Amino acid sequence: MTSNIQSRVLRISCPNFCAEEINALQSLCNLLKAHLKQPWEIVSGHDADLILLNLDTDDPSAHRSATLPVVGCALRPRMHAQGTIHRPLRASEILAVLSDLGERAGRPFAQHNDVGALADGRYRLQSWPIEFEQWPEDWLGVLAAMTRSARSLRDIAERTGLAPEEVDRCVALLGRQGLLDIVESRIEHATEPPQTAGRWQQLVSKVGQILGFS
What we know:
By secondary structure, this protein is of the alpha/beta class. It folds into 2 domains: 4-105, Response regulator (Rossmann fold); 115-211, Arc Repressor Mutant, subunit A, CATH 1.10.10. The chain contains 7 helices and 7 strands. A 5-stranded parallel β-sheet has the order 2-1-3-4-5, covered by helices on one side. Helix 2 links the parallel strand 1 (10-13) and strand 2 (40-43). Helix 5 (153-160) crosses helix 6 (164-176). It starts with a helix and ends with a helix.
């Protein structure tokens, strides 16, 4: 039986797209519908699962979000952060983005309301979010802490010096995006399985250098 997450319509917000670009995106979504596991629709505002952002506007930063995946679009994507795609939008790139985020949305993750709810669990990062460069800078340490080892929320807070509530916010967002594995405390000392490289895993080495990790 199909789960509620897998069957629900996922939403794209394009806060600084013109009407012509939104119509073009709608046409692409209709064209790619048969190749996507989840249906997608375009909505207004930030009540969405994905934000597509035009980076060629005067002030695109006004539309960024710290809690939603943001994918930048630009005439010259190589002049922007890794993960930026072309505008005008290309079918192949939109298919890759929607497929990746749709797959994450379909992965189960135990929901929790506070740090103590899964205190006995350990978290390991499967892959870095494609929009990590737009996340709060303090959160990069959280991502790095879980890249090679499974760690508890309290352990992450101690290593990064962040408040437990801030670590919880970051981990919860990663969980909603389907980027975490949960390791029970009873197998904490077992041999860890090799980490599966995701589509965007090559970004880890770049960020590791920025943060000073070997």
